[in-house]
Amino acid sequence: MPDITDISHARQLDLDDPLSGFRKEFHIGDEKLIYLDGNSLGRTPLRAKTRINELLEKEWAGRLIRGWSEGWLELSRRLGGKIARLIGAREDEVLVCDATSVNLFKLAMAALNYQKGKNRIISDELNFPSDLYVLQGITDLLGDPYELNIIDSEDKIGIDPESIRTAMDKNTALLSFTHTYFKSSFVQDMEMVTAMAHEFDSMILWDLSHSVGSVPVNLNACNADLAIGCTYKYLNGGPGSPAFLYVRRDLQDKLRQPIQGWLGSVRPFEFGIKYEPDRGIGRFQVGTPPIISMAAVEPGLDLLLEAGMTALREKSIMQTQFLIDLFDKWLEPLGFSLGSPRDPERRGSHVSIQHPMAMKITETLINGDLGGGSLIPDFRQPDNIRLGIAPIYNSYEEVYIGMQMIRGVTEKIMESL
């Protein structure tokens, strides 16, 4: 058995890694900085710099308004088609547009309007807070008799599918869940929960923000109704990059888009005064797309498609397991607890570790106050440190050094008390 506490083991894993060459496709400005926060904001693809410069100099500056008829208007669908290949959907079922919360509002409202006569929305306490805020806002907007039922988690890591079944009844219109949970990295059983929703003739809306690009998703195989997600985490689309939405093909012309913008109309350039929805996925657009931001998304998508989701998932599982093995040897003895599933089938590409001094540890790591470089993880109240591994660019040696730094910083902080 190799000694995982010896850095030579990590280096050998990197030599054997078939995806190691993709790291050079990303901007790595400081080799002494260990970046384990790709689950919040991915690194910059070098191709994105080239693409943005090309757009600014040749398309915007050179072609001006002619750019709209030379590819800009098709960008939402083209990018959607590429994301579809990462999430097991058809190309005409995904659209890049708006922000994640806006897309959640659009699809949730459309589902509730379609499910007339049913008034219950079900979600859970581990869902991303913004998703819960949007759902709360919808029930406030619609008023009685609409209600939001939030399921509690017994272990604060995941949600047992049976607790979802127990919460459902004939009045359940919509289930809205995260596929990979943002705090714990717990991966919900999409196929089982989707089938459960359909047993009650309910619709289901999945948030894929912490899954897309790191965890395989097959929306069509699961017969999922609706989904949303962001592009700035594992897709490496840049800060605030546009989100995406998915609507199963057979539902597209049945659902009513609640934000009736001009670009979602059937003939947007006729500028008629009466709204008529576009056919298919196009009706879920609203206004003019942010072309520069959208252009920055495509290079990251291309890299992920080149790498392949099967290979990315295999590496993600190996890297998160390597991290957990080092956690067991180095961090658990220092009072840390594991806040993520040990089962790789139920674990995404980030690992949460918990400690009473998590905030102090995180601040010290980021600032490099104790010397020896710095580490950027992600802190979540009250005691949670998220270590996000992006298999497209993170190396095993980075994981090793990052865990070594956490151990060293924690030991020094505890010695100073």
SSE topology:
Blueprint: H1 7-16, E1 33-35, H2 46-63, H3 75-86, E2 94-96, H4 100-114, E3 120-124, H5 129-142, E4 147-151, H6 161-167, E5 172-178, H7 190-199, E6 203-207, H8 219-222, E7 226-229, E8 244-247, H9 291-307, H10 309-331, E9 337-338, E10 350-354, H11 358-367, E11 374-376, E12 378-380, E13 384-388, H12 396-416
Parallel strand pairs: 1-11, 3-4, 3-5, 5-6, 6-7
Antiparallel strand pairs: 2-8, 7-8, 9-10, 10-13, 12-13
Helix pairs in contact: 1-12, 2-9, 3-9, 4-5, 10-12, 11-12
How would you describe this structure to a colleague?
This protein has 417 residues and is of the alpha/beta class. It has two domains: 7-44 and 308-416, Aspartate Aminotransferase, domain 1 (Alpha-Beta Complex), CATH 3.90.1150.10; 49-305, Aspartate Aminotransferase, domain 2 (3-Layer(aba) Sandwich), CATH 3.40.640.10. It has twelve helices and 13 strands. It has helices at 7-16, 46-63, 75-86, 100-114, 129-142, 161-167, 190-199, 219-222, 291-307, 309-331, 358-367, 396-416; strands spanning 33-35, 94-96, 120-124, 147-151, 172-178, 203-207, 226-229, 244-247, 337-338, 350-354, 374-376, 378-380, 384-388. The strands form three sheets. A seven-stranded mixed sheet has the order 2-8-7-6-5-3-4, with helices on both faces. Strand 3, helix 5 (129-142) and strand 4 form a beta-alpha-beta unit. Helix 2 (46-63) runs antiparallel to helix 9 (291-307), helix 4 (100-114) crosses helix 5 and helix 11 (358-367) packs across helix 12 (396-416). The longest helix has 23 residues, at 309-331. It is globular and about 70 Å long.
